Structure formats: structure tokens, C-alpha cells
Amino acid sequence: MGIMFGFDERISPEQLRVWRAFERAYGRVSEQLEADLVELHRLPLAWYEVLARLSEAEGHKLRMSQLADMVMLSPSGLSRLVDRMIKEGLIRRIPVEKDARGFYAILAEPGRKRLEEATGTHHRGVLDYMISRFNDEELAQFTAFLERLHD
Amino acid sequence: MGIMFGFDERISPEQLRVWRAFERAYGRVSEQLEADLVELHRLPLAWYEVLARLSEAEGHKLRMSQLADMVMLSPSGLSRLVDRMIKEGLIRRIPVEKDARGFYAILAEPGRKRLEEATGTHHRGVLDYMISRFNDEELAQFTAFLERLHD
């Protein structure tokens, strides 16, 4: 049924299955986390992530390049996201000293409040949709497997 | 530094780490797979996935609802994607008999050719960015872990 390939490009169906399992697992988990955040807090998952990373950072601020790397967005994707979050008053933009073109995103008070309201929902989701599926040993193993894919 | 929570909403830093590891791993792998497909074949990853699922399906066609479920897109997201792929001539839309509002997406010849060209690139990426990081036993275990998150 599918397309035929040269020998050197073959991978086994079992090997291809890991990518499809990964895609589906990520899709399912992120879709459920996002649905809860949007329903209860009108907060898309990527917005939640930006607020959470800022709240954990020194001075509640991060350079745009650091933030882009943390939330796995392209610079242009992050820039659009940040513009919308500034418009809603959740974060602010402040210039970087001695770097005319650089700036930080910094958590604003409404953003801090919104994050505080939403964090329980997010953590409950991570528990329900991920952590509850594993015992402690499995969870450590799964995390270690995932971290092998980070570079 | 971070926000404080009520006791019942706490999850441990180790537990939260699995979600962040998952997010970063998925981001890294999909970003690398997409970069190769776009550079060598001008084919975004989601387009590749649509072509691959159609090529494997009976008659090279799928109902829109089946396809949306397979590629983890919302109906509106898939609809926009399919419109662009039809415009490029890679797939076609055909009506479902006895269902005035339903239709199939079906693989068109230029789409079949484009998929054939791109499949080696995709498989090499899955090997390099995922499979090569594990031995056979680990790969089976990792796949099984991922499949626990599917529902």
C-alpha cells in the first residue's frame, strides 16, 4: 500500500512507530493541558509557559532569546506571542542596559496573578495526564529517555 | 523565586521536570525533522504527515475527521492545511457517497511523488534524532511509555 524505498532509507515499522507514538502522546497531553487552561483561565498553554518561566527567573525577567529557547518557539513566533501578552497587560518589555536593540520580557502584576490562578490547574493536568501513568522508577526512566533527545 | 501554591496543588520539581523534558524533547525532534524536510523538499512536517497517512490508507483516501485525529490537528486547523495542499495540487477533495456534507482527502499524483522524494529524508531524521539514541530494548520501553499517554 505505502510507497517503496531504496534499501538504505528503510526503517522498520517498529522503528517508525516510536515517532508516531511520540507525536500522538505529545499531541494528546498538550491538547488536554491546554483545554483545561483555556476553559478555566482563558490561558493558552504557550502563554502559561511564558508566565511560568518568567516567574522562576532572576528578577522575573528574561532576554527574548532565552525565552524563545525555553518555550521552543522561533524568534518571530515568540515575538507575536509576546506582543499579544503585552497588549493584555500580562508582561512588559524593558530595554537591556548597554544594548540598544536588546530587551527583556518581564512579568507584570496581572500576569503574576493570572499565573497564580492557573498553576494549580496546570499541575493537576501534569499529574493526571502524565505522572499518574507511571510509578516513580518508570517516571525517572521516562524522563531520562526524553532528555536523551534534547540535543 | 516562583509562585507559592496551596498544599493540594503541589507537585515536586522532579515531577514537573517530566513535562518540561517532554516539551523540550518533542520541540527539538520535530524542529529538526521539519528543518530537513523544508530545506530539502519545501515540505512542512504536518504536510509530510498528511501525505504519509493518505499513502498508507485504503484507496489513498481518508475522511477529514480520520485525518484530523491522525495528525493531531483541530478540524479548523486541518481544514486550512488541506486547502493549502489542494492549492499546491498535492491532494484533492472528493465527496463521500450518501453524505452530502462529508468528503475525503485523496492523495494526488504530485503529492505521491513529493512524498516519495521526502520519505528517505524523514526516515533518516527519525533514525538520527530518535532511534539512534536507544538500543532495541530501550526503544521498545520508550515506545510503551509513550503509548500510555495516548488516552
UniProtKB/TrEMBL annotation, chains A, B:
<dbReference type="GO" id="GO:0003700">
    <property type="term" value="F:DNA-binding transcription factor activity"/>
</dbReference>
<dbReference type="InterPro" id="IPR036390">
    <property type="entry name" value="WH_DNA-bd_sf"/>
</dbReference>
<feature type="domain" description="HTH marR-type">
    <location>
        <begin position="15"/>
        <end position="151"/>
    </location>
</feature>
<dbReference type="Pfam" id="PF12802">
    <property type="entry name" value="MarR_2"/>
</dbReference>
<protein>
    <submittedName>
        <fullName>MarR family transcriptional regulator</fullName>
    </submittedName>
</protein>
<dbReference type="GO" id="GO:0006950">
    <property type="term" value="P:response to stress"/>
</dbReference>
<dbReference type="InterPro" id="IPR039422">
    <property type="entry name" value="MarR/SlyA-like"/>
</dbReference>
<dbReference type="InterPro" id="IPR036388">
    <property type="entry name" value="WH-like_DNA-bd_sf"/>
</dbReference>
<dbReference type="InterPro" id="IPR000835">
    <property type="entry name" value="HTH_MarR-typ"/>
</dbReference>
